Amino acid sequence: MGEIFDKWPKRYEKWFKTPIGQLVEAYERQLVFDMLLPGPGERILDAGCGIGVFTGNLLEEGAVVTGLEISLPMLKQAADTFRKSHFQSVQGDMRHLPFPDGRFDKTVSITAIEFVADAENAIREMFRVTKPAGYVVAATLNSLSPWAQSRKTAAQKGHSVFRHAIFRSPDQVLALSPVDGTARTAIHFQRNEDPQVAKQVEADGQRKELKTGAFVAACWKKPGEPTTL
């Protein structure tokens, strides 16, 4: 599966530098970080880190980050970007994480599980490597969003990435874990929206707590008492 992303690092980076891409990144980051609450010194696994779009923000919060990615070209770009930071790159499959139980204080996966058919096992693995009382956060593409329909149309036309994607609703993401969690969405505006209009649309969508944002994030707290080394 990793090979479908091998030609995408530069295109992915270019998209997030566009005006609307910058808005998307900012709102997605805010939602994920409100749930994950990364802090100084915390060991955090970024599963499916890609080129590290969100990894840098975790490092800026003082976290010690391990980035796992199945695509070697994407992982190499992330490793090069953060070579002077507290960042370790690991190539691997999030369905079979190469880490011992309870290795991390928190784990996060952002827009990766939509490419994993056995997402329940991926989430189970994220729980396994997280310490008791630690947070597990998974964010993915929302099936209830208009963005999903346009992406499905692109997939039908042979889009090299979206034809492999599995879109899930907030309830479906929450159902990936037997532990009760919470889910919220972001990106209520459209891809071709004027950035200034998009900000107002996003504010309205978040105020109304709509479930139709293109980006859905779920957060769970692993059962058990906190542990310290």
Features:
229 residues, alpha/beta, Rossmann fold, 35% helix, globular
Write the layout of secondary structure elements.
Layout: H1 9-15, H2 19-36, E1 43-47, H3 55-60, E2 64-69, H4 72-81, E3 87-91, E4 106-110, H5 119-128, E5 135-141, H6 146-156, H7 170-174, E6 181-186, H8 195-207, E7 215-221
Parallel strand pairs: 1-2, 1-4, 2-3, 4-5
Antiparallel strand pairs: 5-7, 6-7
Structure write-up:
The structure is a single chain. The protein is α/β, with parallel strands linked by helices and 229 residues long. The protein has one domain (2-221): Vaccinia Virus protein VP39 (Rossmann fold), CATH 3.40.50.150. The protein is 35% helix and 18% strand. The protein has a 7-stranded mixed beta sheet with strand order 3-2-1-4-5-7-6, sandwiched between helices. Helix 3 links the parallel strand 1 (43-47) and strand 2. The longest helix has 18 residues, at 19-36. It is globular and about 45 Å long. The mean pLDDT is 91.
Count of helical segments?
8
Q: Order of SSEs, N→C?
A: HHEHEHEEHEHHEHE
| Residues in β-strands, percent | 15-25%
- Give the radius of gyration: 17 Å
Instruction: Give the rounded overall mean pLDDT.
Output: 91
The shape is globular
Query: Could you estimate the helical fraction of the residues in percent?
Result: 25-40%
Overall CATH class: Alpha Beta
Distance between the termini: 36 Å
Number of strands: 7
The CATH superfamily appears as Vaccinia Virus protein VP39
Q: Might you state the CATH topology name?
A: Rossmann fold
